Amino acid sequence: MTKPIHFYDYSKDELTKLLTDWGLPRHTSDQIFQWLYKKKAKSFEAMTDLSKTLRENLAQKASLSGLTLQTKQVSQDGTAKYLWQLPADEKGQTAVVESVLIPMARDEEGQAGRYTACLSTQAGCRMKCTFCATGVPKFGRNLSPAQIVGQMLGMEQDSGTEFNNVVVMGMGEPMDNYENTLKAMRTLHDPKGINLGRRRITVSTSGLIDHLVRFIKDDWPVSLAVSLHSADPEIRSKLMPINRSNPLDKLWKVMKSYSSKRRLPVTLEYILLKGVNDRPEDAKKLHSYCKDLLCKVNLIRYNPVPSLPFDAPSEETVKAFREDLKARGMKVFLRERKGVDIAAACGQLGYENKLEKSN
Ligand code: SAH
Ligand code: SF4
Fold it and tell me: Domains along the chain?
């Protein structure tokens, strides 16, 4: 069986080559590229300045992303969670992934009325952090570039909104699906297409050092966020098993190299977990870890995952932790809680699918 063709998998040059091989002139491939990424057409059918015969031919030979929208849930705060069905693989296995549309009251630049897309890169995750819902079920698969880009365009087509920001903070570890995620990021960044700037795309990683070395060398067109969660080696290893092979001192060096080369701060994500990493001594360790590193800290209230043995601290503890870091001169943001009622908040993705599977 030949591999299905999904247009969102192709860069502009690759698409031109594909369509030239199919006998189409260059200006037609330019038109199609515009339909894909500027006019954000839902289907070949919608590309109305192409002849009907051509549109029918294209629809027979290819699709855009290969994703099918299964369900959409909207939270009281306007956050929407999309569940996508992936096509069956060679073994006939199906899988689903989730992505989230987040309306921002105000973003970090103080702008109102903006939307952020939170995208997944894998169905499941092999990193198995002990606090995260995504790592609980058996690992599914890597998503293709088209499936990563398709989540964003699919949400735009469904909601009629346009995203100003993308965070790769959904299901999966982006560095563990390196090539496909990089390709998708280049598509989001391409000035001739979607044209999102480096500061508008944030990729979050658990901190795989060898991959991060490559990430810097390949110059991903994105900003970097690293899930730290503790600056204490023992605590971090308990929360994130990957810390054993990706220790904090090496992580520090690679982050330093990123921020020096790109002249951009690294965002350090820090989930506050009651009684685990929320004490004054934890703030002190975090502060000394950040010394000489261009970074900002993004504090995240833990979002409860039933069956996992963690709780969120009280609001009082959260605020005290933030104030402690601020008083030490650090740049600190406390992430707004979004979509908790529909399990669309950080770390909750994949949980309901796990329930469906275990039923
Ligand atoms: N795998 C990548 C990106 C996806 S997770 C990473 O780990 O960075 C995106 C963010 O959500 C990470 O900072 C992750 O640690 C956080 N997260 C995971 N489970 C969470 C939970 N239950 N509550 C709050 N944040 C969580
Ligand atoms: Fe994977 Fe990130 Fe969840 Fe860890 S926090 S299991 S790396 S998705």
Answer: 5-63 (1.10.150.530), 68-358 (3.20.20.70)
User: At a CB cut-off of 8 Å and minimum separation 6, what does 2 contact?
Assistant: none
Indicate if ligand 2 lies below 6 Å from the C-beta of 181: no
Beta bridge partners of 97: 84
| CB of 135 sitting under 6 A from ligand 2 | yes
User: From the CA of 240, how far away is ligand 2's center (Å)?
Assistant: 8
Strand partners, 224: 203
Of all protein residues, whose CA lies closest to atom 8 belonging to ligand 2?
172
131 ligand 1 Cβ < 6 A? yes
Q: Would you state the pLDDT for residue 342?
A: 72
Other beta carbons less than 10 A from residue 193's beta carbon: 18
Atom of ligand 2 nearest to the CA of 135: 6
Q: Which residues contact 234 (CB under 8 A, 6 or more apart)?
A: none
Contact present, 306 and 265 (Cβ < 8 Å): no
Residue pair 199/224 in contact (Cβ under 8 Å)? The answer is no
Low-confidence ranges of the chain (pLDDT < 70): 1-2, 106-111, 343-359
Give phi and psi for 6, each to the nearest 5. Answer: -120, 120
Q: Ligand 2 pocket: which of 127, 178, 226, 239 to mutate (most atoms <8 Å of CB)?
A: 127
Please say if 295 is a catalytic residue: no
Tell me the ligand closest to 224's alpha carbon.
1
Is 108 catalytic? The answer is no
∠ CA 231-127-247, rounded to 5°: 35
Ligand 2 pocket, residue 123 CB under 6 Å: no
Digit-coded pLDDT (tens) for 154-168 = 999 999 999 999 999
Q: Check: pTM over 0.85? Answer yes or no.
A: yes
What does the pLDDT read at residue 89? Answer: 86
**Structure-token pair, residue 253:** 């060096």
Ligand 2 within 6 A of CB of 75 = no
In Å, the largest CA–CA distance within the chain is: 68
